[in-house]
Each structure stands twice: as C-alpha cells, then as structure tokens.
Amino acid sequence: MDARLEAVRDTVLARNPGESEFHQAVVEVFESLGPVHDRHPEFLEAAILERLCEPERQIIFRVPWTDDSGRVQINRGFRVEFNSALGPYKGGLRFHPSVYLGIVKFLGFEQIFKNALTGMPIGGGKGGSDFDPRGRSDAEVMRFCQSFMTELYRHIGEYTDVPAGDIGVGGREIGYLFGQYKRITNRYESGVLTGKGISWGGSLVRPEATGFGTVIFTEEMLKTRGSSFDGQRVVVSGSGNVAINAIAKAQALGATVVACSDSSGYVVDEAGIDVGLLRQVKEVERGRLKDYVLRRSGVSYVEAGSVWDVDATVALPCATQNELDGGAAARLVRNGLLAVGEGANMPSTRDAVAVFQEAGVLFGPGKAANAGGVATSALEMQQNASRDSWSFEHTEQRLTDIMVGIHHRCASTADEYGDPGNYVLGANIGGFVKVADAMLAQGLI
Ligand code: NDP
Predict the structure, then answer these.
(1) Which residues are catalytic?
(2) What are the start and end residues of each CATH 3.40.50.720 domain in the chain?
(3) Which of 16, 76, 237, 345 could cross-link to 319 by cystine, CB 3.0-4.6 Å?
(4) 50-68 pLDDT, tens per residue?
(5) Could you tell me the sign of the dihedral formed by the alpha carbons of 191, 197, 200, 206, in that order?
(6) Whose CA is nearest to atom 21 of ligand 1?
(7) What's the pLDDT at 1?
(8) What architecture (CATH level 2) is domain 3-188?
C-alpha cells in the first residue's frame, strides 16, 4: 500500500477498535487508491480520506418492545449517516443478531462508493438492529418496527436520509416502518423509505433489482471473454431476496443453478433450482430451505456444509459478509470457475479475492455488482417525487442500462489506471473520485 495512505489507514484502524468488518472494507479500498493520489495531490491536502472514513453522524438507540408472551425485550438500533456529498444518505436496514456498529459501518462505507458508481444523486448510509425476525410472529415484528421507527423518524426524511431493506428487512418490515413514520409525522412522505409495496408508492422491479442486477453485471463481465450465462453451471449462496432473484435471472439467461443455501445448509438440485417452489417456501411460507427438499424429488440437502464445495463455472455469493474464504475460493478455481459476481456485500474474504484475481477469474465486487438494488431504490424515489409509477419493462430497462453503465465505468477506470480487468480497482477508484470531487467542491465540512 502507498506509504501516504498507510499512515491514514493506521489512524482509522486505531480510532475504530474492534470493528473488524469496517477495517476490512477500509483496507480494501485504500489498497486501490495510491494511483489516484499521485494524480490528485489535492485530495491528500484536503484530507478527503480521513473525512471519508469518519461518518458524518452515528446514531445508536434503545429499542424496547414486548413479545407475544408479554415479556419486555430490548434491542439496539443503529443508523450511520456516512457521507452526503452526492445526495441524501441512502442505504438499507439490516435486522440480524450479528449486527453491531462495525457491521453497520462497513456496510455504510461500502455504500458511499456503490451509490457513487450508480451515477444517481445519493449519499451513503446504513442502519439496522441486532433484532432477529426469524421465528417471530407478525405482531412481534410489527411492535419491534414501530418502536425502532419511534426513534429513527427524527433522523430521516426524503431530503435527509432514505433507508431501505437488507438482511431481515423485506416488504413486511418496510410496511410497518412506513406506517409508524406516517403516523408520527402526519405526512405521507413516500420518498422517506424505499422497498415499499407496489400499491402504496413502491417501484416495480425493486424486489428483483439486486439479484437481477448482479446477474446483468456478471453477464457483462462474461461478455468481455466472449461468453455469457447461457449454458453455465451456477452456484448461488443464500436463499433470500438477492439469491432468489439472482437464480431466476441466471436461469432466464440459460444457466442452470444447481445449488443454493441458507445458514443451516445447502441444497443440490442438478436439474436446476425450481424458483417457483423456492419462492413459495421462503417468501410465502417463510420456511427453511430444508422444506424445499421435502417437496421435490432428485434433490439432496447437506446440513451445515459449504455450498462452495459444489463445482460451478459461475459463483454468485448472495448471503452475507465473509462467507467465502481462501480455501473455498481455491476449491472453486480447481473445479473450473470462470466468474464471481457478488450479490452480497463483501462476501469474499481478502484471501478469496486474491485467489480469484491470481487465477484470472472474472471478479465483480459487491459495491459494483449488487448496486442494482440501491439504483432501483433511487428510481423509486424518482417515481415518488413525480407522483408517477413506471411499467415493469421500462424500469427493468433502466436497471439494465444502469448496470451496463456501472460495468463500463469500472472497466474503463481499470484500463485508465493500467490494470485492465481489475474490477475491484475500477469500482474503488471510480466511486472514490466522484465523491472526492464533490467533497472538495463543498469545502471543509
Ligand atoms: P435476506 O434476509 O432476504 O436473505 C439473506 C440470506 O442469507 C438468507 O438465505 C440467510 O439464511 C442467509 N444468511 C444471512 N446471514 C447468514 C450467515 N451469517 N450465514 C449464512 N447465511 C446467512 O437478505 P438479502 O437477500 O436482502 O441480502 C443478502 C445480501 O445481499 C446481504 O449481504 C445484503 O447486504 C446484500 N444486499 C442486499 C440488497 C437488497 O436489496 N436486499 C442490496 C444490496 C446488497 P438464513 O435465513 O438461514 O439466515
């Protein structure tokens, strides 16, 4: 790493002890930025990096609620408003027991670059809670969401900060959160949250957008080698929103998705995952992946194993951070891997990324490959602002154009900085320069 950046990195790591995921995200970005600072010494003089690593605002709050047996439960809520140089803070809310400040900060930091790459006027932020919605009744989830919003509402707004979904936060949770915001503020402010239901301000394609976008980005990478999804053998991790829609899109483009997973195990379905059945089990019945196996013949289920043991030509990690390590990456490479498109945020460890890059595997980092979700959230904000709603075809075409544009921006930036095909470098530099220019123009704030 560039010596000038090393000093800044050391300060950032020392100022944020114990936040390993945030450290990982910062170090990965810093490793790409040396050449930018050779060309733009003004970024160093204005301490752009130091400022970028310090969130503009961090909010941590108590979320008290009662469960169905009347017992009081206490969770912790977070919203990190990281950077507003390009627009209002924008990024999802994650409800998962693993959530703590370090995870929210890594996600918020990544979001700054991702949102810049989309070319839309949105800043970076992220939030969530250590609340676990799995196994909770609808009434418990509603009471939790209402309590969470009773504090969060004072910090967000259409022009300030616009949350959306992430792990554990889907249409149901966004509905309860929006209802409580409307009730407290007495305003029907559609643009305050994205991922809303279609009949009350949501956008068509938003539920599909992250998974679809990941596949579109990966298809663009494959095209650079004269290939496509058609005929590929694909493995997807996760079986949530991003995973299901990535599976659907990859199969629509002619691939066979032979495996997917949840945190308990994975399914191998050599005939190709039945997306309709998977949606029924996971989205309608809120069941476990194990239930998929009970309803389909010729399918096997591996309890507690790693889905990356299944060989594939394309891997789409769509579950969570650091789910694919160096050993798994080496196994995938040995088994004939061509491309990786990250649907999740930072699912590959730094070792895994190094293995992919050394082996010449096409590697699309999450901040570029999964940006279709937030980009379509920005399209939802556009529709809300103009009191309009667009057709599925029009919105999907906008998403496709945006993903092709992000691919082009990453690839051309990597070319410009002398490392063709390095999408990590292209995404980090492409996102950073846009934000840094705006921060410079807006003065020392
Ligand atoms: P969901 O909650 O819909 O699904 C998450 C999936 O990942 C589930 O199958 C879950 O399994 C699995 N998973 C979660 N945590 C773990 C874990 N610790 N170990 C193993 N498996 C795990 O979330 P999304 O699909 O929305 O999000 C998935 C990823 O995509 C996240 O990294 C998120 O940040 C990223 N992302 C999401 C966007 C969106 O629009 N939703 C936008 C951009 C990125 P289980 O049910 O067993 O927990």
Answers:
(1) 126
(2) 209-360
(3) 237
(4) 999 999 999 999 999 999 9
(5) positive
(6) 263
(7) 78
(8) 3-Layer(aba) Sandwich (3.40)
User: Ligand 1 centroid vs 39 CA: distance in angstroms?
Assistant: 38
**Residue among 90, 166, 235, 301 to mutate when testing ligand 1 (max atoms within 8 A of CB):** 166
Specify the CATH architecture of the domain 209-360: 3-Layer(aba) Sandwich (3.40)
Quick one: pLDDT at residue 2? Answer: 80
> What's this model's pTM, rounded to 2 decimal places?
0.97
For β-strands 314-317 and 233-237, DSSP reports them as parallel
The pLDDT value recorded for residue 15 is 97
The CA distance from 393 to 400, in Å, is: 10
- Burial degree of 293 (CB within 10 A; 0-12, 13-18, 19+): middle
242 Cβ below 6 A of ligand 1: yes
Ranges under pLDDT 70 in the chain: none
For residue 165, which atom of ligand 1 is closest to its CA?
41
| Long-range pairs of 176-185 with CB within 8 A, sequence gap ≥ 24 | 176/141, 176/142, 176/145, 176/146, 176/149, 177/93, 177/145, 177/148, 177/149, 177/152, 179/146, 180/145, 180/146, 180/149, 180/150, 180/153, 181/149, 181/153, 181/156, 184/149, 184/150, 184/153, 185/153
Token code pair at residue 291: 């239930």
* pLDDT value of position 427: 98
Confidence (pLDDT) at 40: 94
Contacts of 231 (CB under 8 A, 6+ apart): 254, 255
What is the dihedral angle through the alpha carbons of 309, 235, 136, 180, rounded to the nearest 10 degrees?
140
Q: Whose CA is nearest to atom 10 of ligand 1?
A: 262
Provide the pLDDT for residue 3: 85
Q: Which amino acid, residue 376?
A: T
Q: Range(s) for CATH 3.40.50.10860 in the chain?
A: 3-188
Classify 52 as helix, strand or coil.
helix
pLDDT the model gives residue 4: 85
Enter the DSSP assignment of 257.
E
From the CB of 240, is ligand 1 less than 6 Å away? yes
Amino acid at site 146: Q
Report how many helices (DSSP H) and strands (DSSP E) the chain contains, helices first: 18, 12
Q: In which order are the strands placed within the sheet that holds 265-268?
A: 300-303, 265-268, 256-262, 233-237, 314-317, 339-341, 362-364
- The DSSP secondary structure of 334-393, one letter per residue, reads HTT--EEE--SSS-B-HHHHHHHHHTT-EEE-HHHHTTHHHHHHHHHHHHHHTT----HH
